[in-house]
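ok so for the tutorial part 2 we go from a plain amino acid sequence to predicted C-alpha cells. step 1 is just haveing the sequence, like this:
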Amino acid sequence: MNDRTKAALIGGIIAGVLSGIPFIGGCCFLWALGGGFLAVFMYMKNAPGTFAMGDGAKLGATAGVIGAVIATVIRIPLMLLGVGMSAMGGGKDAGTMAGFAAATGVVGIIFTIVVVVGFAVLGGVIGVAVLGRNRPGGVGTPPPPPPSDFGTGTGGYTPPPAS
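step 2 — the prediction. this is what the C-alpha cells look like for a chain of 163 residues:
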C-alpha cells in the first residue's frame, strides 16, 4: 500500500467512524474536515517535492469517499434498530410513522455522504494551504532574492544581437 492510499484510508476511517456514531455524528462536517486535513498531513510528512491544491483536493476526496462508506455502514444497522430516533407512538399510524422514519433515514444517509465527501475535500485543500508553507517550494514560499549585481548594468542580462 502506497503512502497516499494509507493516508487516505486513515483519514477516511477517522472521519467515517466519528460521523457514523449517532450523537457525535451530528458534527459530521467537522469530522470530515479533520479527516481530509489528517490525510494531507500524513501524506505530506513523507512526500517528496511540492504538493498542489488539486492534489490535496483529490486526497481529501478519497478520504471522504472512504469515510462516507464507513459512516453508511455504521448508520444503516443503527437506523434499522431505531437508535437515535424519537419514540414513535403505536396505534393506527404506526405504518405511516415507520415509512416516514425509513424515508428520513435514507435522506439522512445521502446527506451524510454528500457532507462527508464535500468537507473532506475542503479539509484536504485547507491542509495543503496550511501545511504547504513549511515545505521548500510549497505554497507561500517567497522567490529567491535577486543577484547582488542586479540593476547595475554589469554582469546582468545581455540581449542577443538584432538580426
